[in-house]
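Aim 2 progress. For Peptidoglycan-binding protein, the working sequence is reproduced below.
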Amino acid sequence: MHKRRPWLRGFGMMLLAVLLVATLIVGVVATTVGIQASRERPEPPVTLTTTIRARTLSDDVGGQLMAFPHATVAVSAEGTVTRTSIAVGASLDEGGVVGVVDERPILLMQGAVPMWRTLAPGMHGEDVRQLQASLARLGYTIYDDSGSYGDSTALAMNQYLTALGYEAVNASNEPVKADDWKQTAVPKQQLVFAPATPVQAATTCGVAGQSVAGDLCILETMEREYAIAFSAADVPDAGALEGARLSIPISGETVHGTVGKPYDRSRQSGVKADDSAKSSQTEGAANSTGSEDNRIYLHVDNIDAAKLQAASAAIDAGNIRGTATRTQGVPDAPTVESIALRTDGAKTWVLTNDGRHVDVETGLCVQGICEISGNSLADGTVAVLPAPDGGTEGKGTGDE
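Predicted structure tokens for this construct:
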């Protein structure tokens, strides 16, 4: 009968443990070496490509269309407003009454020369001619020499005031008797000439009981002139845009015009900031055209003003934008992203995906896209982009 040797069993277990530890160490080392080797193995380079496309480039800049009155007229008066007059935003045709001060009407007529003096029998001048022309448009007969205030001019003025319900007055603002109609005159503050009619009240033209000594209100011509406002950052040289083609989308169609000279907003008469009832147009101009917005304003020329007038509400709200074309590219020219262009000394070239080096000449470049011309560069040709690190392009493609 054999006896068991305890030491032999202990030795076997120790040997087994050593073998297991050795196997584990070998596995860990092999795995680590494999991972390190895979990390050190260079990844295959990726070649990025882009496609040459036929298109028409255009160097455009956008701006907001603005409308301004062709002219503004300040109405002066002195006395007490005896009848509530036209309110802000109300329109008034030639021959209408702007306001009533001390029960004398302030009349509106069309003329380029402002009312600078009392008009009375025996006077001559362009202002008299304007008065005669306005009375004739209102239906009164004038047979005096043009620009000479004679009997027929006095009679027409007398009849006109009577039709409005007011007494005729002489040069001293005193009522004239029926038999003295030849003395009918127009005191200085009882007539306003506007360059164009109708007009719109930019501020209220008096409330009954109001005392006035100076400006009563401001009138704007309904006739508008237009400008387009560009960011100064987009248009550092305003003169460079003069004559540029302008495209303005309005009511489903595009209206074309040209960009003109800088628009002088300083000649637009201001409106009192404390007037509680500003017109929407005046508010739009005041709020949108301040110098703090850092914009430049250029005239809009050679455009169908009637179509713009029809869109007045949208323009006043600031919802109409236009695009000026600084440079028009070649129609349907081959174009490519500028990053695909390579230079070698004085030469510019592209690398096609079939390995060809094609010399090219560049034309207009807009927002990273350039016109190119070269042999065998048709629409759809694939160009290889330079590797980001300047190395040789590898395999694999990615098309922009």
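The radius of gyration is 42 Å. This observation will guide construct design in the next reporting period.
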